[in-house]
Amino acid sequence: MLLNLLAGLPVMLFCLLMQAVFITICLRHYVHFRHTHPNRESQWLNILLLSMVMVLMLLGNFVQIAIWATLFMLLDEFDEFATALYHSAVNFATLGYGDIIMSPRWRLLGPLEAANGILMFGVSTSVMTAAVMDVIKHSMERLQQREHL
């Protein structure tokens, strides 16, 4: 069990760091665009901005899945990266199919990755929710400005 924690916790911390990088990049670009184009408001622009946020958050999750798959390959749990990636995605998304299992020695890495995945999907959801709330706020402000004209 201790060996699983020693192998898994650094990967989990690295994944948390990676997600923080993706969030920072995403929000920096989002805020920069909103600040430099305050009067550009359209339905298509909002769709584009929200899509950008969703794609970057999803990309961050995919990178983490690949990082865990790399760990599984380094531990010689799988012969092919595609199988390790599939197993990692099942763990990260907490699906738990059980069609591919790891050896008893490293099996506890699965729940550790699942905990990482639950946390990261929650963080991704909160970033997307913040972006949606910002779009709603800007839309409401524009409507109020039109009413006052």
UniProtKB/TrEMBL annotation:
<dbReference type="Pfam" id="PF07885">
    <property type="entry name" value="Ion_trans_2"/>
</dbReference>
<keyword id="KW-0812">Transmembrane</keyword>
<dbReference type="InterPro" id="IPR013099">
    <property type="entry name" value="K_chnl_dom"/>
</dbReference>
<protein>
    <submittedName>
        <fullName>Transporter</fullName>
    </submittedName>
</protein>
<feature type="transmembrane region" description="Helical">
    <location>
        <begin position="47"/>
        <end position="75"/>
    </location>
</feature>
<feature type="transmembrane region" description="Helical">
    <location>
        <begin position="6"/>
        <end position="27"/>
    </location>
</feature>
<feature type="transmembrane region" description="Helical">
    <location>
        <begin position="114"/>
        <end position="136"/>
    </location>
</feature>
<keyword id="KW-1133">Transmembrane helix</keyword>
<keyword id="KW-0472">Membrane</keyword>
<feature type="domain" description="Potassium channel">
    <location>
        <begin position="65"/>
        <end position="132"/>
    </location>
</feature>
